[in-house]
């Protein structure tokens, strides 16, 4: 599996609260994505701030952080050839009003702010986002073996997720 064929995906709180998670996952699988990691979580504020760091100077930054921490999300690492482009095609335009019929945002988004899903905009961004949410995917056998044994207490202080997990 090549990292260039991976992308990060998030089902946002609006779609989760409207019980659209299963429908969106069904669309993902019907479009031949392999779900490599999947987890349901409520994001900690500091993690959301790091996730949206690229927008820090934009006027909507605080609203993005507030929204993404307002309820559970589904975070995923997806695999498919040309994963970033294929995922962006499946999710559609940022504004659901502009999204093509049959896309996730057209079907489940309600506004530009509540557009159901997130998709990485490049392979580089996808790698950064996957590493932020699923760092174990970047660990390889034999690396830092001594550190891992001594850092058992640190795992409980992980900033990553504060909620229940599903699969992964």
Question: What can you see in these coordinates?
Answer:
This protein has 168 residues and is α+β, with helices and mostly antiparallel strands. It is built from nine helices and four strands, in the order βααβααβααβααα. The chain has helices spanning 13-17, 21-30, 45-51, 61-68, 83-91, 104-108, 123-133, 145-150, 152-155, and strands spanning 6-11, 34-41, 73-79, 117-119. It has one domain (3-155): Nucleoside diphosphate kinase-like domain (Alpha-Beta Plaits), CATH 3.30.70.141.
Explain the layout of strands and helices.
Elements: E1 6-11, H1 13-17, H2 21-30, E2 34-41, H3 45-51, H4 61-68, E3 73-79, H5 83-91, H6 104-108, E4 117-119, H7 123-133, H8 145-150, H9 152-155
Number of domains: 1
What is the tally of helical segments?
9
Helix content: 25-40%
**Average of the residue pLDDT scores:** 87
Q: Based on DSSP secondary structure assignment, what is the total number of beta strands?
A: 4
Biggest sheet, spatial arrangement of strands: 2-3-1-4
| Alpha-beta classification | alpha+beta
How would you describe the oligomerization state of the chains in this entry? single chain
CATH architecture assignment: 2-Layer Sandwich
Question: What's the overall geometry?
Answer: globular
CATH topology: Alpha-Beta Plaits
Uncertain spans, ≥5 residues at pLDDT below 50? Answer: 145-160, 162-168
CATH superfamily: Nucleoside diphosphate kinase-like domain
End-to-end CA span: 17 Å
**What does the largest sheet look like?**
4 strands, antiparallel
CATH C-level category: Alpha Beta
Roughly how many Å is the radius of gyration?
16 Å
The SSE order reads EHHEHHEHHEHHH
